[in-house]
Amino acid sequence: MRLTETPAHESSARLSPDGKWLAVTVSDAKQRSIWVQAFPGGGERRPIAGAAGSDASWSGDQRELFYMAADGTVMAVPMKTTDTSWTSGPPVALFKTNSGFLDIRALCVSPDAQRFLVPERAAVPDAITVMLNWTSRLR
Predict the structure, then answer these.
(1) Can you give the three-state secondary structure of 77-134, one letter per residue?
(2) What is the pLDDT of residue 63?
(3) Nearest-angstrom CA–CA distance, 39 and 44
(4) Which of 12, 16, 52, 109 might form a disulfide with 21, Cβ 3.0–4.6 angstroms?
(5) What is the pLDDT of residues 70-100, one digit of tens each?
(6) Would you say 68 and 93 are in contact if contact means Cβ atoms under 8 Å apart?
(7) CA distance from start to end of the chain
(8) What CATH number is given to the structural domain containing 116?
(9) What is the pTM of this model?
(10) Which residues are CB-contacts of 99 (< 8 A; sequence separation ≥ 6)?
C-alpha cells in the first residue's frame, strides 16, 4: 500500500501503539525531520515543529515520540493524540550518544520508555600496528 507520493525521501516509518498514527522520517535537500500522519488512509500530514532528526519511535503509552537528532542526541516530544488529530509539545533533549546519522539507524525504546537501544559508532584506535614478515613468528 503506497502511503505517500512526494519528491522527498521517506524512511523509518513507525506505527503508533494504537495503530492510528504513522511517524515518518522525511529527508529533503536541507534536513531530516519527523512527520506524523493518520493511518491508514493518510489524511493530513504535518511535521513535528522543531523535530529535525530521524528514526522516530513511540512510547508504549503514546504520550511521547522519540527521535535521533543529527548530532546523536536522543530527543523526546510530548504527544497528545485522539482518534482524529494530534498535537505535540517542544522537543526535549534526553541524552547524547556518539551515533549521529549512521547508515543503519535503529532507535528502539522499551514500552515504558525507560530503556533505549541506540547504535553507536565504534571507537577509532589511536594507532594501527602493521607486522611485516609475520610468517617468521610461526616457527
Answers:
(1) EEEEECCCCEEECCCEEEEECCCCCCCCCCCEECCCCCCEECCCCCCCCCCCCCCCCH
(2) 93
(3) 10
(4) 16
(5) 888 889 999 998 888 888 999 999 988 876 5
(6) no
(7) 63
(8) 2.120.10.30
(9) 0.75
(10) 68, 72, 118, 119, 120, 121
